[in-house]
Amino acid sequence: MSELSAYESFSVEVRDHIAHVQFSRPEALNTMNKAFWLELPRCMQDIEANTDARVIVISSTGKHFSAGMDLGVFSDPKAVPMNGDPGRMAENLRRVVLQLQDTLTSLEQIRLPVLAAIHGGCIGGALDLVCAADSRYCTEDAYFTIKETELGMTADVGTLQRLPKLMPQGVVRELAYTGRKFSAAEAQNLGFVNAVYADQESMLATVMDIAGQIAANSPLAVTGCKEMLNYSRDHSVEDSLKYMATWQAGMFRPTDMMKSFQAKAGKQAPQYDALFPVKPLFDQ
């Protein structure tokens, strides 16, 4: 297992097959600056390629989970030209937004489940981020808001596309049109978060326990679950069932099932082989 890279925006610790990614800029309310957008997909790839992690937990430090997008991202003239031909400026901005979208989509594309542990404010771009996680948990003081509307723009990196798959359409529209905050209790009632905890310490302890339960299962079975659930969300039942049959025909082998049966018979925890690391094609 290779040593992980160092990141400006978060710390990463891998223990017992669990990668804990923790936002580490509390003095800046963990805003999503330029470094964050560059580092997050690299971090996901790094964990997948260079660690034995089978699940990822994302949490934060300081008062808030994240205050969202650092507007300085759009003030860099090298990234977003502020003058010139309008058509070319528009084409450039579209490319920038697509890159930002891809950063958060990396949470879906990685084959490991991603659990988000949220405290305090989860604002704007941070809400986009947690919508891309597999499961969400929060503290009683947590709140969420589609802040972009209040700032005079339309949220553009995932909330409006993913949140309607997680909550009732009418509620999402209200939240998007008004930009109002919704609380931890409302988020749980709507099914957006799995559970609410009294404080960050108890939340992290429970989320790490859930992560441990995931990590104890066959990594091939777990990644198959994530692949099928993501596909089914975006396709018809008929197409999803056909894809499921194809996946099972190609990926299913009795090895892990036999290990599970043998471990239960011996009253022991099963020991599953790791998935092969995902590395760049010419960096094997």
UniProtKB/TrEMBL annotation:
GO cellular component, one term: cytoplasm
Main location: other
Compartments where located: Peroxisome
Sequence intervals crossing the membrane: none
Domain of life: Bacteria
GO biological-process terms attached to the record: fatty acid beta-oxidation
Keywords attached to this entry: Acetylation, Fatty acid metabolism, Isomerase, Lipid metabolism, Lyase, Peroxisome
Class of the enzyme per the UniProt entry, highest EC level: lyase
EC number, UniProt record: 4.2.1.17
Pathway it works in: Lipid metabolism; fatty acid beta-oxidation
Molecular-function annotations in GO: enoyl-CoA hydratase activity; isomerase activity
CDD domains: crotonase-like (cd06558)
SUPFAM superfamilies: ClpP/crotonase
Family stated for the protein in its record: Belongs to the enoyl-CoA hydratase/isomerase family.
Protein name per UniProt: Enoyl-CoA hydratase/carnithine racemase
